[in-house]
Hints:
- By secondary structure, the chain is an alpha+beta fold.
- Among the domains are: 19-154, no CATH class; 370-436 and 444-584 and 605-664, Rhopdopsin 7-helix transmembrane proteins (Up-down Bundle), CATH 1.20.1070.
- It has a 7-stranded antiparallel beta sheet with strand order 9-10-14-15-21-17-18, with helices on one face.
- The longest helix has 32 residues, at 461-492.
Amino acid sequence: MDVCVLLSFILEYFCKAKTLDEFTFPSTPVGWFSYSEEVCGKETNNAGKPQAVTRCSLITNELAVFGTIHELDCEQTLDKILQEVINQTNIGKLALNAQILTSRPEELTTEDVTAAAQIANKLLGSAHATESVRVAAVATVSQLLNANALDNTEENNDTLELTKSLDKLSVNFSSNLKTTGFQVVQPNLVVQSVQVPAANTQGVQFTSLTGTSGSFVANRIRVDNNTATVVVENGSIADALIHIQFHPAVNRRQELSDVSLGFVLYQNARLFRSRLFRRPNATVRVLSGTVSGLSVGESRRVEMWIRPTLESNKSLYDFSCVSYDYNVDDWSVAGCSKGNASDGVLRCSCNHTTNFAVLFSVRQMYTYAEALDWISTVGLSLSFLGLMITIIHHIGHKNYLENYWTVTFTLLCICFSLLLFIITFVSGVVQSSRVYDKPHIKSDRNVLLDSDQRVEPDSGSCTAVAALLHFFLLATFMWISLFGTISVLQRKVNDTPPPYWTPLSVVVGWGFPAVFMAISLGATYTVDDPLGYRQEEFCWLAALDTDKQFDFSKPMFWAFVLPVALTLIYNIAILVLVSWRKYRAVSPSGNGTSFLDWWKNLQSSLLPSSLLGVLVCLSWSLGYAVLATTGHAHLVFSILFCLLTTSQGFMIFILFTAIKSEFKSDVLQFVKYFPRVTLSRFNLSNIPRVTFSRVNLSNFHIPRVTLSRFNLSNIPPVTIPRPGHMGYKLQTISAETSSTETYRGLRDEDTSMTTRL
């Protein structure tokens, strides 16, 4: 299709923005209602609500215009409208008022949704309702599908009744109006009524085509009144379709009668309550098909196609073909079977007509910046190497073990806990049981799903890894705090820790983290829901809710972030205390005249103790910034967090080993005894002599160098050594020789020599 033709076709289905009767209405698709930009004043009951509404209608194939304008009474409320509707008073005006009051569904309360649902039910079922009243009621229901008010039992009962009212409206509208078809298309709801002759009708298909937006538009709704199989127009993509195939006996028994069919397409399943299927994220479209005028069993087969809308970071796992059972007020798989799921379309077939849906489950897809992999690999490698060297160095020195046992023991516990964390992290942090290559769809099993989120069954290994990582990190923070504490205790008791310090530190350093980890695991983990304790993405503590927002009720906050924050505060306090004591020791008068002496004295105890705790805790505190940000900021914080946390083992190596004089001495000793390559180790006596025999150069052409162009009178005599048989003969070339004299090279007899190595 030509671009210009396509553009004009699209514009035909829109009413251009226009000002009518002092009200300004935006551009609106055909069939939709347009609300004025002017709103009710702040002093009214409906402050901020539109003052007027009109509908865009297609007058001819080439002209779409706004219809009659209805102005809202800004003091009107949904409760007042409900009372007046019950009394059947001017329901046309009340229907439009209710529609305007629900035009901003995100602002509706639970009570507002309940009242609006009751109003719509009364209007749809009223015997006095005109076509315009029912259209306004359908528009109100469409807006309620976007309401985010909390569900309750009363609201669910009223909203569920709406689905029954819409089914009746769809199948009866055409027969009541004596027409072959009737259609109402709103952004979230489509009601289609069709009448077809029973004779020679093989089947009827209702189709909603894919468009540029997710909303329903009239020019993308198709009805085929006679088709034996599912048909999609060439070049078109169907978002949803339902095909009702008639039994061949219908043509023989009902040649003179008509069959009424009704179709209702819902943007989501909010009106259909369910206890069996949880849908926190998925947008499940519901497609209803109702047939009137046929005996039970004469409509042989119903086929349905649904194209689910998936977020870019999610993939389809499985789906169920269901219908809504009003006897149990829930979804049921009875009478429905699954087809294939090729080309992004989920196919179902059922042996009855009612409200159908395709319930599907998805799983999260995770992607990471390539830089994070490189940083993790390099950082963890350096940390592992640094921790191993630190452990070997301190265990191999008797001086550390005999004279500084308490400090050395605490440092070794820090190294061991962090080293075990790295080993566990590398070997098991990634959820190995997840497989993303293809959907897990079994067409021979149509089982009702319980959630739209696929949770991998817990084999136990991932939860165990998360618990171990949790324990080792808490132990690392605890031992770092103990390391800072020992520096304070030594200053109080003349550098000698209390005798009970070592057993007490073992209980605190290893026991407290183990108890805390066990409590958090027991309080949040269940076999059926392992994600209460850990994440699905990788084997670590759960942190985010279903909307990917940081959840303070998750164990990531109270079982990790909070202990890290307390450890950070504690180490900062020790840092300040140690700094002040060192300063007072160097400058008792407190006049600040010995800053350099204070700094030199402070380095020996500050860097190896409190500074480590501050650096480590600050590094892990960046994890909160990673979880709380998105986009470019998230990437920056992720890189910083990865860089600092993976290199903590290397920090310990620098602070406690690399800068120590003992380590430098060990390195020098190692270099000293490193094997050297010396000539003295080789025996050269067996190497044969290399003799240069006499070489005749007469056959070689050596170009003559003419010195005539140079004035050599001022050059002093040059003595050139010439090889002889037993030594060197000296020959003096005078600068006064003829400038035209040429030098031809060495004589043959002077070129013989013997060289011995």
